[in-house]
Amino acid sequence: MCTGPDDASVEVLLPLLWSLSSQPVLWVLASRDERDVPGRRPLNAADEAYGERLVANLLTIESLPGDTCATILRRAEGNPLFVEEIVRMLIDRDAIEHHDGRWVATDRVGDVQIPRTLHGLLLARIDRLPDEARRVQRVAAVIGRTFPVSVLERVAGGSS
User: Fold this and answer.
1) Region 70-89: what's the mean pLDDT?
2) Are residues 60 and 117 in the same domain?
3) Domain span at 73
4) Distance in angstroms (rounded) separating the CA atoms of residues 42 and 50
5) Residue 18 half-sphere exposure, CB side, CA atoms within 13 Å?
6) In the chain, at which end, N or C, are there fewer CB atoms within 10 A of the end residue's CB?
7) Over the stretch 101-112, which tens digit does the pLDDT of each residue have?
């Protein structure tokens, strides 16, 4: 019975995880719940180099200004989901565009205000939705975390 990853296992698994991260592979790994074991390293807040690799992998972009990249990494505090959402926000606001098979930062990238928290970023995204979509989102939030779509259709469709 394996009680958790040892240093040798971690050293083998980490490069493997990185090398296959872009492939459609299902990883099922188990570990101890202790936070100070080597196997927890991938789950801790990402360091700056990891954050830079994450941004580069998400965008494959060389033209992202260094100060913008630093702001993204600072705000995200190593949270890969936050980095991904910031990048998505920059794309939604046309601060980053896709040209000739690659992502390019536009002149607007420096003007975009990046929210300080993931919560703030998600609220900003909701605020940019059309009125009807925001109304349906509010109705869904009141219904609860999980529900059949038919319930949402009946409740949201009944009011205007």
Assistant:
1) 82
2) yes
3) 46-128
4) 10
5) 10
6) N
7) 777 888 888 888
